[in-house]
Every structure is written in structure tokens, then in C-alpha cells.
Write a structure and sequence with these properties.
The structure is a homodimer. Chain A folds into three domains: 14-146 and 333-342, Rossmann fold; 149-310, Dihydrodipicolinate Reductase, domain 2, CATH 3.30.360.10; 355-436, ACT domain (Alpha-Beta Plaits), CATH 3.30.70. Chain A contains 13 helices and 17 strands. The first copy, chain A, has helices at 23-34, 36-43, 95-106, 116-133, 149-156, 171-183, 187-197, 205-208, 211-225, 244-253, 314-329, 371-381, 411-423, and strands at residues 14-19, 47-53, 69-71, 85-88, 110-113, 137-138, 162-168, 235-236, 255-266, 269-280, 292-299, 303-310, 356-366, 386-394, 399-406, 409-410, 432-436. In chain A, strand 4 (85-88), helix 3 (95-106) and strand 5 (110-113) form a beta-alpha-beta unit.
Chain lengths: 439, 439
């Protein structure tokens, strides 16, 4: 079935109801007000905020909301007679946000959302509902903030069969890792600073344990490979284990450490994973500093495309929210996942046992004669070749850190070797492993 | 007036007539054949090549053209009854390419083109003609090869008021500069290699003198600022003057040299210029190696977005050609320059006398006492402050190279100072100046 293009009648204004007036909501109102002339020229019609909802009506958000209908109940926007499109900026994969999106679609209203958790968990169902209702469901702002990566994959690179995507999708993790790298500080210390600066939430789990990036990656997977989103099969690893010492060894080996979301498609299936990874110092990812995000896409025609920009912040995220709104107003809203929802396939998702690549291992061992030989011997028994080794002995404690980079090996072999190393009587702590990215 | 969305009837296939079967033309046919299933799912209809034209029918291009109507005369495509969209891959701003595009539009056919010279010189008129005829005129492949920069500016960042764009828009120049940088070789030497590898044309003037980048920059200017394209006011400088010595001094000062196209909008007007520039070694542009292209856009909502990808090559350029085709087939072709052609403004274009920034100057002087003091004294008389100086004396010739980086100064002051320095009796050659990019 051919999906009908979504058209707003004649050249009437597109009327928005914005749910949530936090940083992004207020910035969205501001962009629409500041750039009214440009937006209407680009969209071919005016864009108007006619209704909003937020917890506190009286709060000064630096935007003029006079003449805008203030609804105490966000769900009122889903049935508001003057609203063509609900902009959901509440967040969370359940509760009011989900109800609002579902009800708005059911009531024939278009929806623009910045809600990564909601889209990651219910995106396939919501896009099917939107197709059935003949409305648009767009969520550029859910992934990589201001970088229009979803539009780029869905449209800008529509000629391509995609093979791989990798991205720095969480600004908090990148801020922490790059501060550790530059200043030699420890994770906890930098996390505290990030929380003070407002770059990290309290508690920081969603960011530093990788779940925020995982939600974004699931969305990219669905879009790039035309498959139904699944969070289940995803390997998710955060950055808590990265120590100042790993930064030093990485530097000596010619690498930086970045928190990546990687999704790949092969004959065998789709593998999506989020983890801290070694990237070469001259790679584009190594140049991504502080709270920036970055994306890298591989396709059969283009080869690869790298993008870098702000992954968060009110105005940058509003840039993506308003982009979706302009597309909708211009009558060029694409299907949520690039194809009609009924064409999304059920993919076979692979777990990390299918992974292979180079690995960084750091062992804290007793500083005794023959330990390094024992370690490399044990690795050889597990068919693991060592490319480079560094050793750092501490005379006071009579212990040593052994850091090494392996050849390209299989994850199963590495895991088996790590289990064996952890049992060795010279091992003081469990082996610390970080994957080396092939990008 | 609201521009009507361009729709192909029902879900009939979109039928293409491709003019020009060189590297890009053949790659376009291949991408369409290889990714048929994906393209029709993404476009909501099939995409078919029904006619082609090229000089030599018998040449093997590695693509199956059986069943495709081969026209000896490219202009036949403009009146071909089965062609919905003409894909113009001939090139050149006059002759057959221009006639084909004009006639196709006049006959109510959509046009997708990769022709930067044609669009730079006649883009405003052609987009007006396309609007009048109710057809699409799209040319993503004309700028930065596979990087979908036009779509990104026009749609992905549609929320933004743009202030500045900078790009590495010519892969040949970037190949030459980065080879000179890495290998310490001279311009002529690397150019010869680039010609052997097929990275540079013979003669190489269009690339190394900056005109190819200038055409691309004019297109970006029109799109980003919503103004009628003009090539007249543009400052265009190539890379022939860059010497191995400049690379060394740049390195010592902490910079790389890249050939940039920069366009800015301010209250006073639009300034577009193409020139080699010093960029900081830790800037994203410094990481752009070999034939890659890169783009940097500043907007009021996003802040900035950087993109890097292949700027040339058959498959990468075909990625952009086919993107436009998919947009057209999906019914979401946007206006050529982002807004209806009648809304494009006449901009005031500024020349380089309005430029200000830091400058690198290299002087070849007699190695005599007091010359450096004379040079800095003369600069001071022209209100020019010096931030850093390096000197490299050659005992054999009793001459010296003085290299310096100025503070932020006005172009008019710099030009006056250079004229005075060129007159000084200690100057052996004219002063060599390279601007320092603020990005």
C-alpha cells in the first residue's frame, strides 16, 4: 500500500500544542517566535503555538505565551479542537507522555516528540498507529539533539543500503570521558563536576550506565535497517569502570576512549551494542570533545558520513523539534521509520557472542617473575594473539598493571580467557576489558 | 503564494531519463538497480531508468541497460514521452546541459542535476522556471558529493537562522594540501601525482584555482540565506601559492592549511569567499584528510553542525543524485532553494575589504640586522599587532624567511601593510599572506 502524503489543508497555519515547558519546550517556543518569518517561508505556511501545558503556569520561561491556551492537563492537548500537532516534550516511556502520544494519534493529530525512551520501547506500535490514523509521528530530537541524524539516514542517505552505524550519543558520558582524558582525573570526581554544571542528572544512572544511548541506538537501528525496534537483545555497558589508568594506557597505545553506540547489519542479523571503546587518536570520534555528540553511518553508495554537533541543550534540541514541525507544515513529513510501518521487518538480533574485534585488557597482578609470560601463555591457549603490551609496576605494593591490545579476536574467546585470567593466582583484581572500535 | 507539493500520480513508478553515463551516471544506474527493493519501500513507488543518453552506446559501463531507451541526443530526454524526471549528469554551465535542463522544465519534467556550474550561474532562474512549471529542480549532488549538505541546510536545520557556513568543498585541493602537509612535498609535485591518480583534471585550473569550490559555495549561499545566487562578488583564491615552507610554519604555529569556502551573513550583507586558510590543529577541519569534503554550518538554534564525507567519486555522488530522486518519488521534493523562488531576496554582497581576522604573513627578506624590527615597526604603523613570529635564516643566500601571525585585524589594513612591505628595500619577494580561519 502506498502511504498517502500528509497534507495540512490549503495554506492555513499549522497549530501546535506543546506539552512540557522545560528547557526544550521553552526553547521551542522561542525558536518559533524568533524565526517566524523564516519558518513560514520555508514551510509555505505559518506555524503557531496555540496551546501549551506545564506544571506551573506562573513560572517565567522567557517566552511570551499571551494568547496561548494554557492547559493544566497535558492530555487536554490530545483533544484540543485548535491543535493540529501535539509536541510531546514531557519525557518518560509511560504515564502521561505515552497516553498523550497515543491519544493524540488516535484523535487524528500529528505528533512530534523528543522522547527517546518512549520511541525506543513503543516506536513500532506508535508508528503503526500513526499510519493507520493518517498522521505523522516524528521524533528527530530524540536522537543526538540538534544533529539531524534521523532525517539524514531516512532521507539524506535514502539511496543507501546501510551496513553500520556508530555514534557518541550521550553528552554526559562524553563530557566525563574527555575531562578524565584531558585532566587525568577519576570518574567520580568528574561526575560530581558534571552534576554541578547540570551536564549530568542526579542520579546519573540513565546516562553513565548507557541506557540513554541505548534508547537512541534502538531508534537508529529501526530506521537504518528498516526493522522493528527491540531493546531486548542489546548489550548495554556504561562508563563507570573506566579508570584514570585506562586513559593513560589508551594514550600510550595511541587511542582515546569514547562511549559508543554501534549497530550493524549482516546476513546473520542485527547486532546493537553500547559500550566504552578505544578509538584511534586520529579518528574523527577522538576529536569529539565535551558534551558534543557525533554519528558515523556506513552505506553502500556513500561509503561513510560523519556528523558532529550538540547532543543536548534547549536550543539545539529545539532545532530538531522545529525541523519536524516544518516538515509537517510543508507537507513533506516522511514515515516515522522511513518506510510504511507494515514494511518494517522482524530482525534476528544477535548478542555479543557474535562480536569480534581487537580488545584492550588491563590486569592488576602480583609483580612476580614470569607473570607476563604466564599471561601471554594463557591468552595463547585461548587462541588470542597480543599485538602490544605495556607494564606499569608499583614497587610499594609489589603489584603491576599489565595493559595489552589483542589482535582481532572473537568475543567468546576473550570472555573465556578473561574468566581463566581471573582465576589465576597472580591476579589481584578481575581483568578490565575495553573493546577496540574498528572505526 | 503557497507552493503546491509536487506529486507523482497514484503509485505509478517514477521514470527517469539519465543524461550522461560517465562515472556518476553509471554509478547512479547501479545504485538504482542494486537497491531497487529499498528505494521503492522508501519512496512508496518504484524508480525506473527508462531512457539514457551518452556519447558511446557500445561502451561497457558495468550496468545492465537492456530495455532502456538509448538516445543519441540528450535533448531527446527533455521531450521523451516516458520520462517523468530528467537526471542531468553532463556538466558545464552552457551547451547541451543547460538546454536540456531548460527544455525539460519547460516540458513539465522534473530535473535532478549534479551540475554545480549550471546551478551557480543560472540556479535562481531555473528554480523560478521550475516553480512556474510546477516541477522539482533538485541538485544535492552539485555540492560536497555524498554529503547531503543542501538537504541538511534546507530541511534538517530549517529551524535556524544561519549566520555562517564554511566548507572544504574541493577534494582535489584537499588531497594536495594534506599530501604536502604529511610528506613535506611541493605543490607541483603533489599535483602531478593527483593527476596520475585521477584526483585532478588536466588542466587542473577549475579545482586548484578555486572555481569549483566557488560554484558550490554560491549554491550554499543562496540556500542558507534565502538570497538570489551571485558569483560576481565572490573572492576566489586557489592553492597554487601555498609552499612547503608555509606548511612547516603552519605546523610550528599549531595550524593546518585547508582550502575553505566561507559564506557569512550580517546586517551589512553577505560575504562569500574561497581561499586557503590556517585552521587550528585541533579543529574538525584539520582532521579532514585526502579527498574528503567537510561542511560546518552555524545557526541560531543548533549552534553549529559539522559533517565530513566523500566529496566526489561515482557511488558517493550517486548517493546524492538518488536521494533527490527518492524525495521526488516520495512526493516530498522541497523548493530548490528552500523557499518559493519568488521569495529569494536580492542580497547586498560584500567584498573582502569588509573582512577581518588574523593573518599569516611570510616575508622573504635580506638577512640583515634590524630587518625584523623594521617589519614589525612598519606593521605597527598600519595598526597591525603581531601575535607570534618565527624566523628561518639561510646562511648560503644571506636571506631569511620571517613568518608571523597577526592579531585580529582589518583586511584593508593588512593589504596596505603588505603593499608597503613589498616596497621595502629588504624585501626579496612579495609578501605571502594566508588568512587564519576563525572556525
Amino acid at each position: 500500500m502506498l502511504r498517502a502524503m500528509i497534507q495540512i489543508e490549503g495554506n492555513k497555519p499549522l497549530r501546535l500544542g506543546i506539552a512540557g515547558l522545560g528547557t526544550v519546550g521553552a526553547a521551542t517556543c522561542k525558536v518559533i517566535a524568533d524565526n517566524q518569518d523564516l519558518l513560514s517561508a520555508r514551510a509555505g505556511r505559518a506555524i503557531e503555538v496555540v496551546a501549551v501545558s506545564a506544571r506551573d503556569k506562573s513560572k517565567d520561561r522567557g517566552v511570551d505565551l499571551s494568547g496561548v491556551d494554557f492547559c493544566d492537563d497535558a492530555l487536554a492537548l490530545a483533544r484540543h479542537p485548535d491543535v493540529d500537532c501535539v509536541v510531546e516534550l514531557i519525557g518518560g516511556d509511560a504515564g502521561v507522555a505515552r497516553q498523550l502520544v497515543e491519544q493524540a494519534i488516535a484523535n487524528g493529530k500529528h505528533v512530534v516528540s523528543a522522547n527517546k525512551a518512549l520511541v525506543a520501547k513503543h516506536g513500532a506500535a506508535l508508528s503503526a498507529a500513526a499510519d493507520t490514523a493518517g498522521v505523522a509521528f516524528l521524533f528527530e530530537a530524540a536522537v543526538a539533539g540538534g544533529i539531524p541524524i534521523l532525517k539524514t539516514i531516512r532521507e539524506g542517505l535514502a539511496a543507501n543500503r546501510f551496513t553500520q552505524f556508530a555514534g557518541i550519543l550521550n553528552g554526559t558520558c562524553n563530557f566525563i570521558l574527555t575531562a578524565m582524558e584531558r585532566e587525568g582525573r577519576d570518574f567520580d570526581d568528574v561526575l560530581a563536576e558534571a552534576q554541578e554544571r547540570g551536564y549530568a542528572e542526579t542520579p546519573p544512572d540513565l546516562d553513565v550506565d548507557g541506557w540513554d544511548a541505548a534508547h537512541k541506538l534502538a531508534i537508529v537501528t529501526g530506521l537504518a535497517f528498516g526493522v522493528k525496534l527491540k531493546m531486548d537483545a542489546m548489550h548495554v555497558e556504561g562508563i563507570r569502570r573506566i579508570a584514570a589508568q585506562d586513559m593513560q594506557f589508551a594514550d600510550e597505545f595511541g587511542y582515546r576512549i569514547r562511549h559508543l553506540g554501534i549497530t550493524k547489519q549482516s546476513e546473520a542479523g542485527v547486532m546493537q551494542a553500547v559500550y566504552p571503546a578505544f578509538v584511534k587518536q586520529d579518528s574523527a570520534f577522538a576529536g569529539v570533545q565535551r558534551v558534543l555528540n557525533a554519528t558515523y553511518v556506513e552505506g553502500d553508495a556513500i561509503g561513510s558520513l560523519f556528523m558532529m554537533g550538540p547532543g543536548a541543550g534547549g536550543a539545539a534540541t529545539a532545532s530538531s523539534v522545529v525541523m519536524d514541525v516544518v516538515d509537517l507544515a510543508a507537507g513533506r513529513a516522511a514515515p516515522s521509520f522511513g518506510v510504511a510501518s507494515e514494511k518494517l521487518k522482524e530482525a534476528a538480533f544477535l548478542d555479543m557472542t557474535s562480536h569480534s574485534g581487537a580488545y584492550y585488557l588491563r590486569l592488576h597482578v602480583k609483580d612476580e617473575d614470569g607473570v607476563l609470560a604466564d599471561v601471554t601463555g594463557l591468552l595463547r591457549e585461548h587462541s588470542i594473539g597480543v599485538e602490544r603490551v605495556l607494564q606499569d609496576a608499583d614497587e610499594a605494593t609489589q603489584t603491576a598493571q599489565i595493559a595489552l591490545i589483542t589482535h582481532l579476536e572473537k568475543e567468546v574467546d576473550i570472555q573465556a580467557a578473561i574468566a581463566a585470567l581471573n582465576q589465576a593466582d597472580y591476579s589481584i583484581n578481575d581483568v578490565h576489558m575495553v573493546r577496540v572500535a574498528a572505526i
